[in-house]
Specification:
The protein has helices at residues 13-25, 76-79, and strands spanning 9-11, 32-39, 45-52, 60-64, 67-71, 82-88, 93-98, 102-105, 112-114. By secondary structure, the protein is mainly beta. The strands form 3 sheets. It has a 4-stranded mixed sheet with strand order 3-2-5-4. Strands 1-6-7 form a 3-stranded mixed sheet. A two-stranded antiparallel sheet has the order 8-9. The longest helix is centred in the N-terminal third of the chain and has 13 residues, at 13-25. The model has no long low-confidence stretch (mean pLDDT 86).
Length: 119
């Protein structure tokens, strides 16, 4: 029997609520949030997020708690099983990725080392 793969990404209730608010204020201009990874930073990779005006042909589409997340094709194996959260702290707020494939992070928290998921 084939092993069931986890979703590429899941959202906490806080992240979903924040994203639903952003999308509601966009007046239908965006179809979702595109998430990916790119090379950069002192630890090797950085998470990327941008508003998506259209679904690209190879995007992995994840519908979660009323939000559409589009995963760039090259990022799927790096994000497999990731939970996206939204945290508010004393001096900052933002999205945080709890990624089981992440093996290290730089001291400032801006870049990470991620291994592709073993499927």
């Amino acid at each position: 029997m084939a092993r069931q793969l986890p979703k590429a990404i899941t959202l906490t209730d806080r992240a979903a609520e924040h994203l639903r608010g952003i999308m509601a204020r966009s007046d239908g201009k965006y179809v979702g949030l595109r998430v990916g990874v790119k090379n950069g930073g002192c630890a090797g990779m950085e998470y990327t997020m941008e508003y998506a005006e259209a679904v690209k042909p190879l995007d992995e589409v994840v519908e979660e708690k009323g939000v559409r997340i589009l995963i760039e094709p090259k990022a799927v194996l790096f994000l497999l099983g990731t939970e996206m959260d939204y945290q508010t702290e004393k001096f900052s707020s933002g999205f945080k990725f709890n990624n089981p494939n992440q093996t290290d992070a730089c001291g400032c928290g801006e870049s990470v080392t991620i291994e592709p998921a073993r499927v």
